[in-house]
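Kindly draft a polypeptide, keeping tokens residue-aligned:

***
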Amino acid sequence: MNEFVKKLGILAVAVSISTPVAALEPLHQNRTVVSGFYAMGLADIVRRNCDEIAPRYLRAYNYLKALEKYALDAGYTPAQIEELTDNREEKQKLKGRIEADLAKRGATAETPQGYCTVGREEIAKNSAAGRLLRAK
């Protein structure tokens, strides 16, 4: 019995050494981070296109810092976070997705009042984007 326990212990150590630590998904694929940047981007586009909606800058700053803390706590490095925030390609992809979603909701250059409608809807829903905005 003692020999069996010894072999089992050796096997457990060998497996733990040979098994790699679970790798983190790329930060630009992390659902929490992407949805956070989506909310910030949506709020930013709405407030830039609707004079009836104002940004809540302090809340936006705190929201951004909370996202950063989440990423650090999840195991991402400051360099990985900076790499994402400087990544123009990912920013353009996200902006395109936000603009397509806004267009589906009636907010386009041809229908600028749609941005105000979306902003008021987000504020009323108390969504992540809505909490970053206020009606004037």
About this structure: The chain is about 65% helix and 5% strand. The longest helix spans residues 31-49. The helical segments are 2-18, 31-49, 57-73, 78-85, 88-104, 113-125. The chain has one domain: 27-135.
